[in-house]
Amino acid sequence: MIKKILYCLIAIFATNALFTGCKKDLTVVPNSLLPTDDIYTDKNLITSVLARFYQQTQGYGAFNDNWNNYQQDPDEGVNNNGAPSTGNLVWGRDRYRVMDYALIRRINQFLEGIRSDVSKKAMTPGENANFEAQALFLRAWNYFFMTRTLGGMSIVGDQVFTYSSGMDVTPLQLHRNSEAECYQYIMDQCDSAASKFAHAVTISNNNTNLGTARTLNGAIANKWAALMLKSRAAITAAAIAKYTPLRAPGNVMKDAKGTDVVGIPASQAAGFYTAALDAAKDVIENSPYTLMSNASNPEYSFYNATTLKANNTEVIWATDRKSPNVRTEYTSDVAPLSHSDGSKGNSLGATLNTVERFENRDGSDPKIKDRVGGPTSAYVFYDDVEAPFKAKDARLWGTVIWPNALYRGTPVSLKAGDLTKTTLPYTYATTPPLRSAPNASTGPNGPADVSSNFVNKTGFGVRKWLDETAGAGVLPNFSEVWFPRFRLSEAYLIAAEAALELNQAPVGLPYINKIRVDHGRIQPLSLAAFTFDKIVNENFVEFAFEDHRVWDLKRWRLAHVFWNGVQDDPNAQAFALYAFQVKVPGDPNNGKWVFDRRRAYRRVTTPFDFRAESYYASIDLGWINPNNPNWVRNPYQ
């Protein structure tokens, strides 16, 4: 038998601390080959190989180093760089497409090695189980990204295919499995990983079970990450099964064998919802994680739950960062220019659409009161520019920066200008937004309808992922802020949704109310008010900017409904809210504030347009001919 070899990062000498403490540069091209037996008997080398797998899978979802790699879902944020966009804003079919069988093959090689007798003899059973579980989880994570963008793909199992010139490739040309089979495979692999994690007891670590305990900075997967992936996969499959025939019936496809490679029969929805509920409840009831809640300061508590690593009890798994080799420049680009460490800032602006998704704590209409009537009627005057935002769900402060909200302990000016006449027709005074002129009519950050890259154009900044540490926006270190992949709150919302869809609303109600009360400090829902629309909105406000929104609307088959390309549609059009201060000496409203609602400057003529054909990415024709003629194209190709 030809001894297999595996590329290995032999320059890295690490233990499990590689994932949870100082990180090395995992992008170096390997220059040495080691025999399999040498790798799988050395825990440091095993860890190095796994580290590479983590690095290769963490980029899924377009979250890397800089702000412009963050997914900007249409109703969350607007890229503030430059003049108005005039290009076609139809959602591209291949956006975020993932297809990486090369990685699956490498993981299968790893599994073959870690399961070998020579490997098992070189370490304790618990250590071996932990290594195997991580590989199973990462393979399932890869399949999940493939399936949710492409539909059913070929499941290769544990096979390691080998090709030599001239051989018959027919046995390698697998048909696509059904979409339902792929989601079930992901769930089954998560169960296998969870079982392995449960046996990952290490005697050398005082009998600690590394697979079920919280990990430092959530950087390495454990049993609870596996169950979270299972519940996410199950709720995705369930929603696709239920809502495709209702809202996007064209998104189905059978191959020549009659396999449902795209689309899941509605009859399977209940089974997937049940699996999602069971897995989420397991995490809620048995994991060591708890929601972060502080009744005296719920706003900052939510910011801590999402953005800060220190003493975090909620994040289960994350893309961690550690300077100097693994860091993010997000704070450099997105922080308010007035508060930035360097010469950049304001590259991303939260939309008014996002802000108005957050409920008012007293249950009143969440729409900001800007005018007493229609868009040309009289303004509503506010004594405090922060008043309409302070009245909202506490999660809003932890998500966006509103006018005069604190960042790094001082207010952020988001003043568009002065109102110089308080009766219709109104008149205004504005100045160029300059960092060197903080007391001018228009604040140093804007907002303003100008093409400058460093001026806010929506009236709101983004707070999530901003680092308050001094110097986090410049070299040499930039920021170590992580990116959570799974938070405990997702388990609560999956449980709530699954129970509601299974006609078990009394079971699901406490789960959604737990999030609303602990995180938002807003009124709990009554049973009558617990509806599907509340599930949709609660997921939006809880996970804004966390790579959930697009995928949620896609699985519910609502993306083409929300982002319909219609001018001034409240979902498709990106809106801004500009704050003006009254400057009319002697006027009873002098010093007060008004808000002007308008189309966001960068998207003024271009509402977002998601079409039915974009629910699945296209199959690259090069994958079919000549590589695998058994694969069929996706719908609308």
Features:
637 residues, 4-stranded mixed β-sheet
What would you say this structure looks like, in words?
This protein is of the alpha+beta class and 637 residues long. It has a domain at 5-58 and 92-163 and 172-320 and 616-627: Alpha Horseshoe (Serine Threonine Protein Phosphatase 5, Tetratricopeptide repeat). The chain has 20 helices and 18 strands. It has helices at residues 17-20, 36-39, 43-58, 101-114, 117-121, 125-150, 179-198, 223-247, 269-286, 298-307, 330-334, 352-355, 387-390, 395-399, 488-501, 505-520, 532-543, 549-555, 559-562, 621-627, and strands spanning 5-7, 33-35, 77-79, 201-202, 208-209, 253-254, 260-262, 315-319, 348-350, 400-401, 406-407, 410-411, 415-421, 427-429, 461-462, 483-487, 575-582, 593-599. The strands form eight sheets. The protein has a four-stranded mixed beta sheet with strand order 14-13-17-18, with no helix packed on it. A two-stranded antiparallel sheet has the order 1-2. Strands 3-9 form a two-stranded antiparallel sheet. A hairpin with a 5-residue loop joins strand 13 and strand 14 (427-429). Helix 7 (179-198) packs antiparallel against helix 8 (223-247), helix 9 packs antiparallel against helix 15 (488-501) and helix 15 (488-501) packs antiparallel against helix 16 (505-520). The radius of gyration is 26 Å and the shape is globular. Mean pLDDT is 90; it is low at 1-32.
Mean pLDDT, all residues: 90
If you compute it from the alpha carbons, what radius of gyration comes out, rounded to the nearest whole angstrom?
Answer: 26 Å
Major sheet size, sense and barrel closure: 4 strands, mixed
What is the tally of beta strands?
A: 18
- The helix count comes to 20
CATH architecture designation of one domain? Alpha Horseshoe
Kindly report the CATH topology of one domain: Serine Threonine Protein Phosphatase 5, Tetratricopeptide repeat
The global form is: globular
Instruction: Catalogue the unreliable spans.
Output: 1-32
- Class by helix and strand content? alpha+beta
Q: How much helicity do the residues have?
A: 25-40%
Percentage of β-strand residues: 5-15%
Distance between the termini: 44 Å
Query: What is the CATH C level class of one domain, in words?
Result: Mainly Alpha
The strand line-up of the biggest sheet is 14-13-17-18
